[in-house]
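Revision sheet: structure tokens.
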Amino acid sequence: MENQLNTRIKKEAMQGGLWEDNHPLMLPPIAHENTAQSGIRHVDGAISMARLAPGSASSEFFICIADQPELDFGGRRNPDGQGFAAFGRVIKGKDVVNRIQGLCNSQQMLEQKVLIRYIKRQ
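Predicted:
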């Protein structure tokens, strides 16, 4: 099962966040810090901010499934070439990330929400 799951989820990202405009927990947008500035690359398990334009990231994030250099500064994922702002990485529980990524979905949205109950900074 683990090998099948890993094969199926190559080169993807699992996105999370509030998913609603004007949600009461919505945070204000943050300044964009690209990977050339931070040195944190989009490798397997990297945690990064989702955004539309530089400086628009607020409450949505994603976790890389496999290395994805096209999300770094200069990559071709965004026409502006600024990439996304990676800020951390999963150091324990990558198996949980992979299981969540493998759940049933429809149009890139999980059919059932997954609540993050605990996260900590190390």
